Fold each of these.
Amino acid sequence: RSLSSTNGTRPTLSSNSVLALTTGDPTVFQPFWRKMGDKSKVVIDGGELMSYFSDVGNVCWFLEPELGDAIRRLHRVVGNAVTEDRHIVVGTGSTQLFQAALYALTIPAAAGVELEPVSVVSSAPYYSSYPEVVDCLRSGLYKWGGDACSFDKDGPYIEVVNSPNNPDGTLRESVVKSGQGNVIYDLAYYWPQYTAITSAADHDIMLFTCSKCTGHAGSRIGWALVKDKDIAKKMTQYITITSIGVSKESQFRTAKIMGVICDGCQNVGSAESENFFEYARELMSKRWQKLREALQHSKCLSLFKYPRERCLFTGELNERLPAFAWLECKEGIKDCEEFLRGFDIVGRGGKAFGADPKFTRISLLCREEDFNGVIERLLAIKGIRNGN
Amino acid sequence: RSLSSTNGTRPTLSSNSVLALTTGDPTVFQPFWRKMGDKSKVVIDGGELMSYFSDVGNVCWFLEPELGDAIRRLHRVVGNAVTEDRHIVVGTGSTQLFQAALYALTIPAAAGVELEPVSVVSSAPYYSSYPEVVDCLRSGLYKWGGDACSFDKDGPYIEVVNSPNNPDGTLRESVVKSGQGNVIYDLAYYWPQYTAITSAADHDIMLFTCSKCTGHAGSRIGWALVKDKDIAKKMTQYITITSIGVSKESQFRTAKIMGVICDGCQNVGSAESENFFEYARELMSKRWQKLREALQHSKCLSLFKYPRERCLFTGELNERLPAFAWLECKEGIKDCEEFLRGFDIVGRGGKAFGADPKFTRISLLCREEDFNGVIERLLAIKGIRNGN
């Protein structure tokens, strides 16, 4: 069975027999964008978008004004974050913005000052990339400090709060109680297809990414909503130093894609079926239903249960539908990743997230055929164990 | 006089009266791309380029195969670099690739190993961003070591060789003589519009950028040609950690733009007038002629003279036509940057490049009206000084 179709899509990391679901490649939403056709198409002439500069009067001088406007409109339509009196900083994915925020929060005001690296912490299980990104260059400004729940040092720290949380889908608040810390809110998954929108998030530094919102991971567009002008300036400075701005083509296209989403939600020249979040929610809902059904009698694997919440966007009581399944092994199976690999399902084991190896994260944002393959294999596991 | 035209172009950093030529924003080539019209246009549908992945079998898994092919073709057509048996790594500008190369050359093979940071050096005057990029996060892997000519420490080092050199347009070779060093060749300006192509560069790590080659700075596309597979893997790893790849839209468009350039050079369905490098060379040549004329009787400012060289691409004896003018003050004027600012010309002073403040770098890649403004002001300086 080949996973690469012939109509212009790309192969996944899966081979014919092994389903690799380690990354959250959000190709699940592709059919929606195919259906949108010309509405979501962009055309760029050879002489356009050539300059380094987008908006020289703005704190973030490389932010295309159209993208800034689209981001504000999208948050207004969805109601998931406050954008009034915030600076928008665009980045090469929210990954670059996370680093920009670390830089902005730790760079000394005066040159020549030598301080101890600031500890960066997050509650386990935490997104496996945080420690990797933080310690990558062995920075003298900051270093990975591990699980926020066991952090008890004095002095400055930075806590990253990912809510809903990757990998386990829980809603999070900061846990370190101290006056000397800063918090970065990574709200990559705070969109209606994954969770109820219960209020407009209103924190000092909030990170979002196109990958998980619209499904356009290839564009590498993230954005930060930043309350303090000086922090926004330093974040912009970091991106200036490390990449002299962010792809204009991606910014231009993301503005278009966000506009299509907003038009669809507001029925501006769109049918009701063109509400992206309803489409995406429906899709996630079906996948979670299939997954729960496949595991309901399993003696080997179990899933978290999440409460229902009232969503301000849909107006309904909504189930949580995380982008990842956080599978837990039962019955004394110690290494969930290894166990699943025995059935040709490749997830990412709990250890990478600072958690017990009895957990494994599996992406639910893959293409339909890959998802169905996982379900088949999970059902096969159940059969084997039941048969024993 | 307003510098922002109304037909869709962006304002420069210049205000009405001050000409800011501190950055090398390559808007000079925009008229060529406007003229190309539909040939250089790209169309991207909403459902395309959504995945993180481009080519999972390749060392650089996020490189669009079309871009890899276009890069190889462009180097073959121009003859400026060897691409056979090289790995191509794409980056968010060559800036990110420079950092990726530093990481690849300094990350210890085993975890937990603590080494002294490796010195990164370059011959003064050096590109002003090198020290800024190297020391940005106070990495424990590497640190800025200053002018390569005065570097005399034992142990490992990395030398960056920028040739033709930014800011002064000279051709460069590595200067540190030691067995323990690695060299990164930054060949951003090794294109026929700036210099004679005297041979196909054949170094272990070579960096190029779209900004200075085609003029598309906004795309933030750079590429590295890397001989050693392990180094290419580590560079890819750095880009994976810090930005999970590079904008697919920019890669897609750059492939198209490079294709148009190659077709134009080879007269594939193109008129002779559509040879981009001839167009760009002609333009740079006119600017240098005007600049030299404006300063030929100046008692305040002088310019380098460069030798003519035989160019393998044009087949002619070609003048060097650097992207920047490296102005030197005469007659006891100590601070060239300050001196020029008095005439509303804002360049970047020698000190930023590790050189004497009697020098200032001025970009020659600006829009026509800005360039003409500089010439007028330079002529005015001459008048004032002659009149004294």
Amino acid sequence: MTEQSRTLAPQDVRTVACVGAGVIGGGWVAHFLARGYRVVAWDPAPGAERALRDLVSAAWPSLARLGLAEGAATANLTVAPTLAEAVAGADFVQESAPERLELKVSLLAEIDAAAPPHVVVASSTSGYPMTRMQVEASTPGRLVVGHPFNPPYLVPLVEVVGGERTERWAVEWASDFYRAAGKSVITMDRELPGFIANRIQEAAWREALHMVANDEATVEQIDLAMTDGPGLRWAFFGPCLTFHLAGGEGGMAHMLDHFGPALKYPWTRLASPELTAELRDAMVAGTDEVVSGRSNTELIAQRDRRMIAVMRALAEVAAEEAAERSEART
Amino acid sequence: MTEQSRTLAPQDVRTVACVGAGVIGGGWVAHFLARGYRVVAWDPAPGAERALRDLVSAAWPSLARLGLAEGAATANLTVAPTLAEAVAGADFVQESAPERLELKVSLLAEIDAAAPPHVVVASSTSGYPMTRMQVEASTPGRLVVGHPFNPPYLVPLVEVVGGERTERWAVEWASDFYRAAGKSVITMDRELPGFIANRIQEAAWREALHMVANDEATVEQIDLAMTDGPGLRWAFFGPCLTFHLAGGEGGMAHMLDHFGPALKYPWTRLASPELTAELRDAMVAGTDEVVSGRSNTELIAQRDRRMIAVMRALAEVAAEEAAERSEART
């Protein structure tokens, strides 16, 4: 049993320990600093502190543009000489070590031994289930996965899930804490290799690799197909809401009932699940929740407004960069 | 042999015929009108003209925000009473009929019989190969696929590919014409079911359906995972450039050499191709072209600037909409 009663309320966290300060760990450091936390980092790699401070400095102007929390400062970063010192005074620990299972297992056991037992510890792992990582920890109940996307100081998504020995309160606490820290949180009920976002991303990536392997498309065509095609919509409407609109007034139900046969087309190497009545109804009911009463007319207006805003914003950035380059040349 | 010598230069096109004026065809009509073309539309469905004019009116404010071409006006739209009249005077024909192969085959044959033989005819098909659609046409050499994304008046991407009996000049002409009409064009060398963008989208979609079918994720979680995760990056950096950055200073080469084993992980139901030396080198060389000499520091700066611009633009739209709703209530 962990000492849940001594755990701070998620919104009262002041000090975050970041164990591992490479691209992902350093990105977490920058995010937590920008949200006003004190951060204690530890990374055994040679030159890690210099690289970390450079990453934070490089990210800071971006974070300032997005809006810093009150009291946020790069001076709130301390680099600890040992793992034990890093986690000893922390209200929350984020582990972002290299992606090797045996390393994660032993590091999480070390963190678990050194951190106060009521403190929640999250791993940034891209895909290992916590069940396999928590095997050597004495208080595995407070160990969760908190999987970010790169760069963690900008991309809002964090996927939270526990292992078999994780206690439910820790999953809920971590979800609430990340939300308090400005993140967009998906709390998963069960462990799933790659979680959710990486599964979708990996399916797209493998199809892309197959196309290059078979000389069907080039890298350039694949990237352009994404950025100038579906990628523009996916910044604000996910795949389900997008296909709901593709179904016209009949929405997702019409889409599945009438374009269902497309699931048999060889449009990807990934076979489709059978479109059972259960799956059809689950997609329709789930999409209804996402649509949340908006009519197609409203959704189309919202989509168009966002797409134009995104395209104009990207065009402005490109124009600014071109002006800066031309200024730098003269 | 088609009469290529009589074909206008792509930039001299004045009149576009749109055959089929539903969501996709109507979207094309709105796009071509906004780019300053005269458009003649034909659609046999009852009420089609009213629906088309409504779609164009609804899209016009968006198109005006993006910037109209000189002379662009909704008054440049004519609805023809017959297919033959619609295409008789056209410099280019865009077919956007419902997605049924036998319908596409007969309609393209009718268009081919009625349109001047030197005029290029493009089909909006989402996935049929032109080889299977051009079988009843007398001059199949000028028939191409010009596959848009919904809504065609906003999403820039058009995938252009010919069938076995399409002549090379028609594919090149259509690509040049779409570019002149403000589109972002991928010219494919070979027919591929689903083309490129739909294959990537379909792989992501089928993985999503599998997750719902197996109770691993909800529709809401899938859409949030996309919009608040990889979807935010894909609006401006495609999957290959994204993974190049994930490789740190070693880029795509490091990513494949060190994270290659991840391709064996069960992170999606789609099996990966074998990471042969050829595939590895093709990915590295192709990514080098996309990177085009930019250092990682430059790429990260460009990524962060774009991501912040996109997030701020989307937040502004949401704030505007909230203000409008609250105004409407008072």
